[in-house]
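User: I've been trying to design a sequence by hand for this structure and keep getting stuck. Would you show me what you'd pick, starting by listing the structure so we're on the same page?

Assistant: Good idea, let's start from the same input. This is the structure you sent:
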């Protein structure tokens, strides 16, 4: 009875050693680092907003390139070409795990920012001329980022999807990609 147990033990030990030998090269590989290719920044409405990140028909304006901490939201204005189609916005990190939480007003933060009719719910930035209000909608929100990094926002307008990529760096001398 002892002999089969010893053989079984040696086989299990052999498989463990073989497994470690095969997995060691995988474990020593560095994590894949991506270059965060941020969406373009435009100064499309300089009298109304700070420079906007994105491309037609959707941009974000937050004036911040640094991460304030996971409990501090960043005020974010979503600027869209005027539409009454529903808008759904969500965000996640591209270079590591992480999901942004979005909030409208004092509502509870959520994985999705949903606006049923943006034309109806648009705010009017101070000094906005009538032609700007006829061409764009302005949707204020707060975004909670759990960490700095490369963030992708998927913006669904009706059935179409648009993407905005932005890099959020840590405060100080070193950025989040090091």
């Amino acid at each position: 009875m002892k002999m089969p147990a010893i053989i079984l033990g040696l086989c299990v030990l052999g498989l463990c050693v073989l497994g470690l030998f095969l997995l060691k090269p995988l474990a020593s590989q560095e994590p894949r680092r991506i270059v965060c290719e941020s969406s373009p920044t435009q100064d499309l409405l300089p009298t109304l907003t700070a420079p906007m990140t994105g491309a037609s028909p959707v941009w974000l304006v937050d004036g911040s390139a640094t991460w304030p901490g996971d409990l501090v939201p960043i005020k974010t204005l979503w600027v869209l070409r005027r539409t009454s189609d529903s808008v759904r916005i969500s965000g996640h990190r591209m270079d590591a795990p992480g999901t942004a939480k979005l909030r409208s007003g004092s509502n509870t933060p959520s994985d999705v920012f949903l606006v049923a009719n943006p034309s109806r719910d648009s705010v009017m930035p101070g000094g906005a001329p009538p032609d700007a209000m006829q061409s764009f909608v302005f949707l204020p929100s707060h975004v909670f980022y759990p960490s700095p990094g490369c963030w992708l926002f998927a913006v669904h307008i009706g059935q179409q999807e648009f993407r905005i990529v932005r890099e959020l760096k840590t405060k100080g001398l070193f950025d989040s990609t090091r």
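That's my pick for every position. To get oriented when you compare it with your attempt: The two ends are 57 Å apart (CA to CA). The CA atoms of residues 3 and 166 lie 63 Å apart.
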